Amino acid sequence: TLSGKTAVITGSNSGIGLGIAWELARAGADVVLNSFTDRDEDHALARDIAEETGTQARYIKADMSQGAECRDLIAQAGSCDILVNNAGIQHVAPIDEFPVEKWDAIIAINMSSAFHTTAAALPMMRAAGWGRVVNIASAHGLTASPFKSAYIAAKHGVVGMTKTVALETAQEPITANAICPGYVLTPLVEAQIPDTMKKYDMGRDEVVKKVMLERQPSKEFATVEQLGGTTVFLCSDAAAQITGTTISVDGGWTAL
Ligand code: NAD
């Protein structure tokens, strides 16, 4: 099990990050939840995990668009055996109309945050003699779609950085990998539906089956529990020689 390990999961007060936190805690890890807000309900999420799993769970506020706050999150966590870089946002627009501030925010939150947290966490992993970096990239870290230039650039960047971290830690008991989900039904995906409906002039159901799951041959969304399970696997001894690679959880998307 992962008891005695501390996992820091960025962007984990909803969606995939929260699902991963739950599965890591069920596997015995102490978890640090994070987002940029500091509400009672954020801290309540950590309390629920602690009560149900008997592990320690904390919520730490830090804005992943700010490099110094990314590094401070790891410092405040105190130890970081498992780092899950999951925080992410999306914006959909043609590149010639893409708002510059959205481009900058997506590059900062979806990509640069992983640089800062990894830089802060690796010395802790080395001191502990064990570590796992799990970057939540995307099928869009391996392939492209129109209107998502910033997201796709950031996710391809994360996949590239993952390979570099793996090479820099190759002879240490540390691995770095990226998980590439296809479509998972979470608030982030939910938020894309109205814009996509407008863009394609379609109703909700049609957008889900024909546009969103168009490239997901299974025609089913992946679940946050499945992504949590994949993360737990990457933290297991069986995965000790898996490093510098991607694992797709995409219902066959990237096989097309
Ligand atoms: P979500 O919106 O439910 O979760 C995003 C998380 O990031 C939230 O907890 C949010 O609070 C946090 N966040 C946003 N901005 C932040 C900031 N500045 N500082 C700290 N935290 C911040 O969406 P999700 O679908 O769970 O997405 C999680 C990750 O999975 C993202 O990196 C996303 O790109 C990736 N992903 C999602 C899908 C999908 O279909 N949902 C597919 C592939 C990849």
UniProtKB/TrEMBL annotation:
It is an enzyme of class 1 (oxidoreductase). The keyword Oxidoreductase applies. GO terms for molecular function: 3-hydroxybutyrate dehydrogenase activity. It comes from the Bacteria. Keywords: Oxidoreductase. Its EC number is 1.1.1.30. The keyword Oxidoreductase applies. Belongs to the short-chain dehydrogenases/reductases (SDR) family. This is 3-hydroxybutyrate dehydrogenase.
